[in-house]
Amino acid sequence: MDQRTPFHLSEAQGRGGGPSRLAARIAALTLVPIALGGAVLVGLTAGKADWPLPAWVPVPISGLLVRGGAGPAADAPILYYRDPDGKAAYAPAPAKTPDGREYRPVRVGEDVGFDPKPAEPAGGGTFGMAETGSKKVLYYRNPMGLPDTSPVPKKDSMGMDYLPVYEGEAEDGNTVKISPGKVQRTGVRSETAQSRVVSRAVRVPGTVTLDERRVTVVATRSDAYVDHVENVTTGDRIRKGQLLVHVYSPEINAAAAQLIANPGFEGSRRRLQNLNVSEEVINEMERTRKVPMAITWSSPRDGVVLERNAIEGMKAAAGDTLFRIGDISVMWVLADVPEYDLGSVKVGQPVSVRVRSLLGRSFTGKVGLIYPQVNKDTRTTRVRIELPNLDGVLLPDMYADVEIGTGATKPVVAIPNDAVIDTGARQVVLVDKGEGRFEPREVKVGARGEGYTEIREGVQAGEHVVTAANFLIDAESNLKAALQSMAAPTPPAPQAQGQEKP
Question: Would you say the pTM of this structure is higher than 0.90?
């Protein structure tokens, strides 16, 4: 609470002298508020021993005004300057309108309180004791915020007047009214709810691996001896059909001899195919009518030699790997996504990958697969991203930083994250209705990302929402709603004559 908290001095004026004397003493006050329930205790010191008020005066937090014929003292501190026509234009220092007129200074005591100032009764009576102007008093509430209301003016046990609740205030429900100067001093800021794409990037580590579908093993299907190995080593890039190794296999030679002896016999050709002899080698046997001493094996695809186990003169059993070749034109990145982010990751979403060894370069791909298992130790799920690798700079087992773009792809109504007051059980937004009026609304939120929150219900595009000082306004709104709910109850319906009470 600001140390310039307004307080009620109508009674003090009657005991302490005329307006001029009261104004002079107000200027010398030192106000020290101490929170006490729904009110404050304001300490008063005046420099004179005959000050008529007690040392501490309980003052309600909201809706109280300084009353007295003189108003604020002429030498009271200036809070700010406002447009002389009453427009919503303010300045922290002296300023002028476009036509050259001076802004009006607003001093301590002039512009305080969350509720609008009611007009002074015509007879100069005590605040809140009668209908004011065109506004009708609905009821009176306890000035200390206690659950007590009255249909007629009254005072509490400390002699303080009950505060009137005017027609229109109760109709606004929880709408909070704040003076323009108070809005400026408390730093209230608003932004417009707009339609925008709300996206959030999930950033996780990953590892570059080979595409399992693009790896091939070169092996014989029978016992054989390695006769000769071409000049190919691990890490070499090779082309499809390039010669790799020459092997001698007694079983293959026997099938080849049978093919030559019975050229029209389909079973002999089928047997060579089952032994993984290439069509080119079989055709060469039929053309030359000769059985070669060694059978040539060539690369089945373009790629990189990942493994070479063939050594000249060695014996290879059926199924032994001689070469392992991998196609690196397309690579996989396996990323571990935390369980709490898994619900926002979908197959087909765009992904940006940066490899730590290639600074300043990024690769674009998409989510190809979400593995159907959660790691029980790390509580993460593996996600597979497919990346084109046309220039071959991505190598297996590289570390990568993965950024998955999640969220809606279509514009939705969104507001800044700071505008949402999240209590855990519900989410509330304060809507700025203009002229110092703020309405709290419960909303249903959706996706969050890049500083904005999707609003599915409660706020429409184009409405203004409070993004700063909203907790202060929300607290005032809750207080006002509580006081209104404790208004005088509706009297029971008249009982019919002769009907007994239950």
Answer: no
